Amino acid sequence: AQSIRHNTERTNKMLKLIKLTITAMLPLVLTACAKHTDIPYEMTVQTEHFDVYCSAEDTEAFEKLANELEQYCRRVETRLDIDEPQKIKLVVYPSQEDFNKALGLPSDNKSLLYSGDGQISTVSPRAGNMYPAERYQASGILPYVIIESSFNAPEYLTSAAALIEGGGGFNGEAAVKLAEEGLCDIKALKRMNDDELSADQDSMLCAYMLSDYIQTEFGKEAYIKLLKKPNIKSVLKISEDELKKGCIDYIKKTYANIPFDLQKETEHFRFYCEADHLSAIEDTITALEENYDRVLSDLRAKLDKKTDVVFYPTEEWLFKAAKGANSSVVEENLYGFWHKGTIHLPSPSILTVESNIIPNTAIHEFIHAVTFELNPDPEKEGYINTQAPRYLLEGIATYESGVMSYNFMEAGKAIRENKFPTIEELETLSRHNTNYNIYTYGGLFCEYIVKQYGWDKMVEILKTFDVESALGKSKDDIRSDWIEFIRKRYNIK
Question: Hey, is 305 helix, strand or coil?
Fold first, then answer.
């Protein structure tokens, strides 16, 4: 879980943690007592938005970080119509002990990133991990400190705005369940203080959903007005009961696993979309049926039921569904995802990209569905094993769907420049933001396994994730053999 700190009352009384949970992927607000002590260093770096206080040894790293964070600050300010740049102190403590002591945290605290009262605090990378700039944004820590300083809104609006601007995922099923149970009481939500909001996950999810609904239904301008003047009746021109009902209907429609009627059923699939989009999906239907037997044969798998495929009429709707499925996505690069047995795709009629992108994506996501059958998570029903390295999961889907066009060119460049990744490096890669190496090198690795060792060995690796035992070689030897295979196959000099 990723934890971040902020102080909402501009006093030295309370500090608050926003923690991204693994089970719900919705940030929770927790509280802890805090003390403010003197900043341990003089200011060493100054940018438009940041005053950086750190040691001379850390100056270069945090000057780079501050400059990278500038783009995120400007984006939040632009999106929320904030005129004046907010000045933020970025304070780097020399050790975990100093960090905990300065913030009044327990001595066994291991969190490294907190914010509050216009200040973001962290630990020197020489004593802990240094988070990349994108993590400050995605976790909500940077949006929160900007929003907190710019608006005098109640806590439920401030926290929700930060989470939305950060782009973090949440549990769509929990949101639908909350809607079916009647959502929470908005009057009670408005009265909740830090401690109460921290202790009630449903209330935090409710705050997020209300903010999401307001932005979608009433527009960004109305939402900004509400942050400036938190009065629902005067700003939105509806009652709290009407807002609650509208939000419930919005959640049920937007975040249901299958929000459309069944339009077509084939031997192995069920297709859901709006009726006037049916003709646009025929190529995808054909591609899935034509590749069904091949994929199951290659992966030595069987499916005992039909696979559901959902097509969304807008890219925004698809993106919202992906966030509700806890998917790590970026809005401008989403052509589909698989979640708990269902393939989710944009309708081909709304895209301007090449015509084969949706059929190919459908096959890619279907391979995820089949791979899940090889190794389901033993504790989380409907999910693939969380121990599965992402490069294997995305790699087999990339290779088996045939989307390998330019991967060898990137690999060839890496070989020539002696930057080809190790197996250990591949195992640490995730889908976070735009890290496409899991597709490039994952696809090439699976190609190497299949061509050199056959599908039985590939399936063994997908079931165990243990390439060394499966191949009887060390990871270094596997990497050397893999590079040689790529050299010969693609004639790389």
Answer: coil
Strand, helix or coil at 23? Answer: coil
Structural contact between residues 263 and 272, judged by C-beta atoms closer than 8 angstroms: yes
Residue 75 has pLDDT above 70, yes or no: yes
Q: Which of 273, 253, 255, 254 is nearest to 263 (CA)?
A: 273
Give the position of tokens 């490039």. Answer: 440
Question: What are the φ and ψ backbone dihedral angles of 329, each rounded to 5 degrees?
Answer: -135, 160
- Rounded-to-integer distance, Cα 457 and Cα 462, Å: 9
Q: Which amino acid is at 296?
A: L
Q: How do residues 418-434 score in pLDDT, each as one tens digit?
A: 989 999 999 887 644 44
- The DSSP symbol for 55 reads -
Angle between helices 155-166 and 220-228 (to 10 degrees): 140
- Chain centroid to Cα 149, Å, comes to 26
Q: Are 250 and 242 in contact (CB under 8 A)?
A: no
Q: Answer for the pair 92, 159: CB distance below 8 angstroms, yes or no.
A: no
CB burial string 103-133: b at 16+ within 10 A, e below: bbbeeebebbbbbbbbbbbbbbbeebebbeb
- Please state, for a pLDDT cut of 70, what percent of the chain lies above it: 86
| Segment 441-453, tens digit of pLDDT | 999 999 999 999 9
Q: Quote the pTM value.
A: 0.76
358 pLDDT band, cuts 50/70/90, is very high
Q: What is the DSSP letter of 406?
A: T
Q: Are 157 and 229 in contact (CB under 8 A)?
A: no
Question: Per-residue pLDDT averaged across 156-180, rounded?
Answer: 89
Amino acid identity of 169?
G
